[in-house]
Amino acid sequence: MAYHWPADTVFQELTLEVEDATCWQCAQPLTICCHRRRRFFTCQGPVQLLSKLSHCSNPACPAHATTLTPEAETALVMPYWVLAWDVFCWLGHRRFARHWSVPQIRDELADRFALPLSADAIERYVGRYQRMVAARHQDPGEVAAAYRRAKGLVLAIDGLQPEKGHETLYVVREVGRKRVWFAEALLSSNAAEVQRLLARARAWVERLGLPVRCWLSDKQDAFVTGVAAEFPGVPHRYCANHFLRDLAKPVLEADSQAKVAMRKKVRGLRDIERQVLAEQAAAPADAAAGSDVVLDYCSAVRGILNDDQGGPLQPPGERMAEALTEVRQSLQRGLGAKKGGPRRSG
Ligand SMILES: [Zn+2]
Fold this sequence. Notes:
Layout: E1 12-17, E2 30-42, E3 45-56, H1 71-76, H2 85-96, H3 102-113, H4 119-138, H5 140-146, E4 153-160, E5 168-174, E6 179-186, H6 191-208, E7 212-217, H7 221-230, E8 236-238, H8 240-265, H9 269-282, H10 284-306, H11 316-339
Parallel strand pairs: 1-3, 4-7, 7-8
Antiparallel strand pairs: 2-3, 4-5, 5-6
Helix pairs in contact: 2-4, 6-7, 8-11, 9-10, 10-11
C-alpha cells in the first residue's frame, strides 16, 4: 500500500544519475530516457528522489532496450520501500538487539525522527529485516567464514512451542560457534518430518566438510531415530539444559520436603520473643543488652526460615540448612565464651 504523505511534508531533494557514461556492450554514450520520482524516509528526514534512467543511444545495440537505474538508489532504499536503509537498520536493531516492542518503536520513530508509521507497517518492515538477517546467517559464504578455523561440530536440535496449541518450532544449532543454523515450524512433528530437518543439517555439514563430534537433544524418539539414520555412528547425548530441567523437579520436591522438616524442628521463636519482651518490660535497665541479642537471633532465624530464594542449582532448603548451621555455630561460640575465657567483642 502506498504511503500517504501529509500535504505539508518538507522534502529534501536528491537527484541521481546512472553512474556509467557509456554502454557496457557497444561503448556508445548512454542517454537519459525517463525520470522516476519517489519519496522515502531517512534518519535525516523525508527525501524526494529524482532518478534519471538511461539506456544505450545506439538503436542497433542489443542493450538499447534495457533501462538502467542509478546503482546509488538501491544503496539508499529498496524498490517500493518507504523507509531508507538507515531507518530500516535502526528499526531492526531496536527490535532485535534492544527487544523494543512495536508500539515503543512507533513512538520513538514519531518523537525522534518525526516519522509517523503505523504498527502494521512497522511489523512488515520487522518481518523483512528478520528475513534478511536469516538469509545472511544462512549464506554459505558467511557460514564457511564462521567455521574457517573450526575443527569439529557439536549440533543440537530442539523443539520449542511458543504457546500451547501452536506449531512447534524446530531449531538446529551448532553449539561450538553458538550459531542457529536454521529453524522451521512443523505442523506435525512425526519422525519423517524431523528427519527431513536432520537431512538438511547433514547437507550443511557436508558443505562445511567438518566432522560432527556429537548431537545434543532432549532425546525424544523422533530425534533419536533421525540422528541415528542421518548421522550413523555420531554420539547423541542429553543436552545439559534438558538434563538439568528433568532433574530439577525431583530435586526441588525433595528440597521442599527438607525445608518442611527443618521448619518443624526450629520453632517457638514467638514464645522466646514474648518472654524476652516481658523480661525487658519488668527490668528494662539490666536485661536490655543481653535480651536484644536474643531478639536479633530470633529475627535472623525467622528471615532464614522465610527465605525462598534459589533454584535447582542452589536449592532453598540447602541454603536454609547452611544458614541454620551458621546460627547454631554462632550460638555455640557464644555459650563457650560465657562458660570461660575472656569475652571477645563482636
Ligand atoms: Zn549499446
